[in-house]
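Exercise 7.
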Amino acid sequence: MHGPRWTTADIPDQSGRTAVVTGANGGLGYVTARELARKGARVVLACRSETRGREAAERLLKEVPRAEAEVRRLDLGDLTSVRYFAARLPYERIDLLINNAGVMALPRGTTADGFETQFGVNHLGHFALTGLLAPALLATPGARVVTVSSLMHALAGIDLRDLGGGRPYRRWVAYARSKTANLLFTHELARRFAAADADVVAAAAHPGYAATGLQTAGPRAEGRRVAERVMRLGNQVFAQPAEAGALPTLYAATAPGVRPDSFYGPSFAMWRGAPAPSWRAPWAEDDRMAARLWAASVRLTGVDLSPPGA
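Solution. The predicted structure, written as tokens, is:
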């Protein structure tokens, strides 16, 4: 049961289960992988940098000496890398897929496949990954797919005529659209799983305001030192630590009774505190837009994860 008392101690035993966590080399992803490993899960740290991934795995093993963890390279900004990762993963059953990795408010750029970076990494990369791992998820009774969104989705809905972040490009609008896409993806994925009578739960979570490397990455990439210092100060003064920010994701991934298309975040003003059901903007639950975004994502990635019967 969610509420002020739910902590990592309440995570059920995960022994014998396999979890794939994207962006697990730091921040929320690292905490998520560590706590799942602490409860007995085999965790796959899917990281863009193998070096940082190995460092994270070493740190995890120091904190959880009996952890079963492995590092595999995954660049969500390169669909060839996504396909390679999925093809090389040796597990026929996957219990948890945590679509956690993301980028925030970067200067305009494109992925290896020519998509606007934030939309390409935050949404399309995870869309393709989920589709490619769908057979292993569908083969696992009680599997879950948890996609990490953000309260910033409230800034903008999806414009299918302009998936490049806005004309002119506005970094926060592009980020908001990618986070709305995460919720629309979850909404449509849950509908398709239900239509196929699949025993897989698709849910979403957000960390509230949690101190991670995301906030400073954009300003640092552009050399905006004042903005980077402001973001760093905000993390120190206002944000909750990554350990608390990861709780909604862990709840959505492991708590009993999580329903399809649920969205969890911190309980206090959706900013901090224990996991609780979270508000989402009306456009993030729009059936028609979810279906249209799905079709566009299939066209752009070449991956269709429709379960049989959906």
